[in-house]
Structure formats: C-alpha cells, structure tokens
Amino acid sequence: MKNPDFDFMKLIEITCKDFGITTDEFFTKFRYGNLPLARQVVCYLMKRNGYKNYEIAYILQIKPSSVSKNIQSVSILMNKRQRLEKELDTLLSSIVRRRDLKYGCITCGRALIYETATAGHFMKRANRCTRWSVVNVNAQCWNCNSEDDYKKYYDAMIRRYGKEITHRIILLGNQECKYSLNDLREIHDQLIQIKNQL
What we know:
This protein is mainly alpha-helical. It has helices spanning about 10-20, 25, 35-50, 55-60, 65-75, 80-100, 140-145, 150-160, 165-175, 180-195, and strands spanning about 120, 135-140. The model has no long low-confidence stretch (mean pLDDT about 90).
C-alpha cells in the first residue's frame, strides 16, 4: 500500500544533494560517478513506500528491469540488521514529524508541514542508546536541523520536557548500547504501538 505522505520528488532532491549530483543529472541516461547508486537508493525507497516497479520506472524514466536490478542491488548491500535499523529510523521519523506538526519546530517554533519537517536528534544519531527515543528525536525545520545548535536544542528540550527528562536523555546518550536483533525488533514493536496511537 502506497504511503500517502511520501513525496518522491523531495526524496530525489535530498538523494541528489547527498550524492553531490543535480536532479537534471539524475534523470539523464548517464551512469557515471554516483548516479547509479543514487538511482538504486531512490528505487529502493520508492518500493519501500508502496510504489510498483512499473510506477517507479515511469516516474524515473528507466526500464522496469532496471528498477528490479536497482532494488536488488540495494537489498543485497543491506543485511538484516541494517534493514531493521533503517526501518526504525524511517518509522521514528514518521512518528515525530506527525506528532510534532501541532508544536512546530522544537528549536525555533516555525510551523511545519509533514513533507519538509525533519527528525532532529538532540543527542546525536550515532548515540545508539537514544537513537530511537521519541523524546530524543523531535521535528525540526530544515534550517534548525542543519544548523546543529546544541545549546538552542538543549533550551528547547528543557522547555518541552523539563530538566529531569532532558538530563536523563543526556546521561543515556553518553552510555554505550549494543542491541541484538531481538532488541531492535522490540523497539520496532514499541514504535508501531506509538504510531498506531497517533
């Protein structure tokens, strides 16, 4: 089933920016540099968001057989853990962007729309103990997330959650956590429950 909140053009723009190519280059037939990998990632994410191969082929102006190959290439690269972690990231992003629309950007208060809101981590994403915490991750506008201003985010966390919870997140974010696949599945189940309650 297609995700109604999924904006494939925004995905293409973000992917192109991440891979250092233009959207014009993305839609060419060339296969140099990062173009093939960028197309593989977009095909994979569109498929994960409910698009059929023929729809992806039409939108990206490529052969349906190329779509299958692109998706398979990405799938092979991602092992079970990576896929589950990516799914947790996507799920958490969806939750906080939906939840926080009514609040606006946590750091500047600017009104947000789902498609352009970002999921900003207070304790950085690399901190595995807080990576999938619905308190640690909050919706931010693109500017605030890219600014990465810890002091501003800290003040916003105190306003929204209070000192005790904010300091608990900081302590947790400075610990080392190793999750088994079962731990990650439990986190997934908890996030699904939270999403269903929104």
